[in-house]
Amino acid sequence: MLKSFEIINLLKARNLNFISGVPCSIFKDFLIELNNDSDFQHLSATSEGEACGLATGYYLATAKLPIVYMQNSGLGNSVNPLTSLMDEKVYSIPAILFISWRGEPGMADEPQHVKMGEITIKLLETLGIEYQIADENVEKFEIQLDELTKLAFEKSRAVALVFRKGIIEKNDKPKSQPQFTREQALEILLIKIGKAPIISTTGKTSREIFELREKYGQDHDSDFLTVGSMGCSASIGFSIAKNTDKPVFVIDGDGAVLMKMGTLATIGNYSAENFIHIVVDNSSYDSTGGQSTVSKILDWQKLFQAVGYKQCVIAQTSEQLENLDITALKKPAAVIVKVDKGSRADLGRPTTTPNENKQNFMKFIQSQLI
Question: Do the beta carbons of residue 55 and residue 68 sit within 8 Å?
């Protein structure tokens, strides 16, 4: 396996000091090591397309080679800037893409990764992006890095290193114990919401909601677990709200909201008096290793009010959340719940398939319309 510090040292030796992207659990330990190194200009982006823009700006300003990291699911978010900005037929911007390979054929993975895993290599080939599969041997990896660096500069184009699951050695360090967890917040919220449509964001939020339903012997039919498509829960939930008179709840995360922030303006513009947007904010990408988001600089209340939400309230503690009367909020409403990052080590995953979830949820929605 590759050690994180080995990758860091190889990048330093080649003056590859700019890096931007959206994290993946495959890069977890590498990014932790990177954040502790002041020699790098590391800009954590809210979307992979944004990271491509940041990389382009860096190259234009310095004529140096940038690195953009992403999960292969994020390759879909990057197609537009890769083809209409960085491509050699447009501005011809050189860069090295570090792409993690979730859903690799023959490797067990979650349903939302399967399709992109199948087409990752084909997509790179379609885009004309030359690539290598990262070797776990550090000497061979060094050769690959040199070859791709030379290729990127010579052809003035993006190239890619594809990282298989498990290729970077884990370095698990003791974690501080959270005081107010997302799961505790969700438990309070589910009691408050009762039997109403809930659209939950990708990652551990949906996993925890599923397990809380199991814990209390409750049905899952009112929950739509958006296991992939990071940032899309709000648009899914809002469109449901526009087509029913019943209250609709979106349970989102700070990283997901940041990725598709334009959706907030759409919601504010078209409005819905039955829409409640809950954002559980732990200032991190908890599902991929706890890397920091940029939510700490946000004034959530000003943001939501600026785009047309009627009310935005913030709960900083479990007591504040328990005392909140969700039904009294002016809608569309936003509820920001501040929690600590971290989750149970034994957190499971949904035991139903996405298609089963969809069918059961649609039956529930239709029953609400009668």
Answer: yes
What distance, in Å, lies between the first and last C-alpha atoms of the chain?
57
Q: With pLDDT > 90 as the criterion, what percentage of the chain qualifies?
A: 90
In sequence order, which residues have a C-beta less than 8 Å from that of residue 314 and are 6 or more positions away? 300, 301, 335, 336, 337, 338
Cis peptide preceding 197, ω within 30 of 0: no
Give 231-259 as a DSSP string.
Answer: T-HHHHHHHHHTT-SS-EEEEEEHHHHHH
Mean pLDDT, rounded, for 260-272: 97
Q: State pLDDT tens for residues 126-182.
A: 999 999 999 999 999 999 999 999 999 999 999 999 999 999 998 766 666 778 999
Number of domains observed in the structure of the chain: 2
In a domain, 175, yes or no: no
**pTM beyond cutoff 0.85:** yes
Is 300 in contact with 279 (CB distance < 8 Å)?
Answer: yes
Strand partners, 251: 200, 278
The first and second tokens of residue 232, run together, are: 């899309």
Same domain, 126 and 230: no
